[in-house]
Amino acid sequence: MLDVCLLGTGGMMPLPGRWLTSLLLRYNGKMLMVDCGEGTQIPLKLAGWGFKPIDAIFFTHYHADHIAGLPGLLLTIGNSGKDTPLDLIGPPGLTRVVQSLLVICPALPFDIRATELPLPRGAPSLRGASGGAAGTGANVDGEAEADGERDGGLAPLRDVALFDSMSFQYAPADHNIPCLAYSFHIRRQGAFYPARAKELNIPLKSWSLLQAGKTVELDDGRSVTPDMVLGPERRGIKLSYCTDSRPAPALRRLFKDSALLICEGMYGDDGERENAIGKKHMIFSEAAGLARDAGVGELWLTHYSPALQNPGEHIGAARRVFPNTRAGSDLLTTKLIFPEGEGADTAR
Amino acid sequence: MLDVCLLGTGGMMPLPGRWLTSLLLRYNGKMLMVDCGEGTQIPLKLAGWGFKPIDAIFFTHYHADHIAGLPGLLLTIGNSGKDTPLDLIGPPGLTRVVQSLLVICPALPFDIRATELPLPRGAPSLRGASGGAAGTGANVDGEAEADGERDGGLAPLRDVALFDSMSFQYAPADHNIPCLAYSFHIRRQGAFYPARAKELNIPLKSWSLLQAGKTVELDDGRSVTPDMVLGPERRGIKLSYCTDSRPAPALRRLFKDSALLICEGMYGDDGERENAIGKKHMIFSEAAGLARDAGVGELWLTHYSPALQNPGEHIGAARRVFPNTRAGSDLLTTKLIFPEGEGADTAR
Fold first, then answer.
1. A68 min Cα distance to partner chain B (Å)
2. pLDDT tens for each residue of chain B, 348 residues long
3. Helix H segments across chain A?
């Protein structure tokens, strides 16, 4: 089960009554965030999930409305008693930006591991970005991306392990500076078949080890691997997140089959399309088009222009394209469960 | 008349329902602020005085809860259409801190003039602070401070011109990093004496020039100076602001005869005194003692600990020491007028 909380829904600047867009996820007691604009620690406190369990903060890009809240949040996380490393993950330039912002929080009680994700070939480069990653928080290497542009000119998507059975993928967004969209994936192994285990005379005490993916050496000398008693990998939980961007083929592929897509809709009215093109953002119906083309389960809109006072007024423009669209609101929260249910880990 | 708005009253971190401590002043259509923590632009918007008229931002010190809101505010000021220079003023280290924070707002449509105020001799120095000021926003020179420690070991207070008849003074606070307290002063010239002007046969058309402090050359060849028709300088408006600090003699002198003192009270209960000493903050009754000793008109408490949920509960501890104390609250606003009234510029 993946807990999801959309902390804020604003773009550009925090407003009275609208926090800046940020996402909070919780899985197996660990938490990660995407983006941290000015004030994000306030809805984080309101969400009530605590600060100490935050293990990773992803950044789509380094415009102030997506990262200016980092120094304050780091201090608040420090006050929460956290003393284990915090991973910061984002496009190239992260190390330089984080090192600069740390000028106002020089002493933190935990380590920061900054991981710069290499941009796929052809994506815009960041002027003055530092080259190397400051740490090895996520298992990413720069070379893997350079091996070609397959899949209609798109670089291959790679799965980066996070923790437990959670991983992420990313793709370049189409914004005026380097920007990434993310999808988070909780993998789910195949169901356990007790009948097969009995056929193979595997003692009961070894079943849980096999279910946990471990190979078991039996007393009679046989070696039993998980695939001998598990069915094929089942569909897991996938959530995708995108802001700031124009629609793009790479996004459609990244979002494919997500249970939930959280996507920017800077402007509500279709008449704002030219404005959105100029500013490298999307109108509601464009986000809905991405949701439809990617076959996602549900779409939440976010990252509204400060001029868009009542996003709900324009939801019809999105729903005509993709009916299961919701105008995201601050602290909108849900739980995503495995498609076959949380409890069905044993096949009968 | 000086418009005063206490934008927030929190210390350490912004909370749901409590913005970080920051002060907004408006005089003659120009605005200045003191401190800008994370989220301060939100109560600024709520105050409704606009962003474009902000001409100067003072900083007491560079802990994140006093400056982390700067990048976002600079961008919002930029969006307001401001294209005239913005003065940033604070203790040594300002240039380095501001240059670091500008990494997330590299392109602003106005110039920034950073002025580092030299610390009086004996004040703690900032590790790694850059030496020079980046601009000459306020008329401050480093040498003037070095000419001795008079007045019971205290460096002399100097008046630094701001605009119109407004100026400021500053003194070192007693905190764990270099920190300044400020007083803002609107000077008021003496009343104009029509009877003297008539005695001197000064034509009516020259009266307003003399009232404005200008010397007038009359048609008959005489030169008339303002002091010939104006009384002695009258008491103006003085407001003082202090956070974060322990009580100190230099503060008592800086605050002297302020109409309003806005002063930190991190903890309400007298039992927290040892805690306050350790963390270089004040309890309510210590702030009240400063107010009493400095002979101020009114005291507003601010910069409450996040653990202090209801500051009003402890107001009695302060009022026993200084009765005219108020527990500051977010967006608490007042107007300070000249002691003799705003309209009495002409003596009869």
1. 7
2. 999 999 999 999 999 999 999 999 999 999 999 999 999 999 999 999 999 999 999 999 999 999 999 999 999 999 999 999 999 999 999 999 999 999 999 899 999 999 999 987 655 554 333 333 333 344 454 433 433 344 567 778 889 999 989 999 999 999 999 999 999 999 998 999 999 999 999 999 999 999 888 999 998 999 999 999 999 989 999 999 999 999 999 999 999 999 999 999 999 999 999 999 999 999 999 999 999 999 999 999 999 999 999 999 999 999 999 999 999 999 999 999 998 776 656 665
3. 41-47, 64-67, 70-79, 94-101, 194-199, 207-211, 249-255, 273-279, 284-294, 315-319
Tokens (6 digits) for A86? 């915090």
- The whole-angstrom separation of Cα B147 and Cα A119 is 57
Query: Which structure tokens are listed for B221?
Result: 């060849």
| CATH architecture of residue range(s) B2-123+132-189+233-336 | 4-Layer Sandwich (3.60)
Q: Is B69 on the interface with A (CB under 8 A)?
A: yes
* Residue A72 to residue B13, Cβ atoms within 8 A: yes
Domain range list for chain B: 2-123+132-189+233-336, 194-228
C-alpha closest to that of A40 among A80, A8, A4? A8
Residue ranges of the alpha helices (H) in A48-157? 64-67, 70-79, 94-101
State the complex-level ipTM.
0.85
User: Is B144 an interface residue toward A (CB < 8 Å)?
Assistant: no
User: Which class would CATH give A2-121+154-189+233-336?
Assistant: alpha beta
Is A10 an 8 Å CB contact of chain B?
Answer: no
Is the CB of B42 less than 8 angstroms away from the CB of A97?
Answer: no
Q: How many CA atoms lie within 13 A of A107 on its CB side?
A: 1
Closest chain A residue to the Cα of B72, Cα to Cα: A64
Q: What's the rounded Cα separation, in Å, for the pair B233 and B224?
A: 18
Q: Residue A16: its chain B contacts at CB < 8 A?
A: 42, 45-46
Task: Name residues whose C-beta falls within 8 Å of residue A247's C-beta, 6 or more positions apart in sequence.
Answer: A174, A282, A286, A287, A289, A290
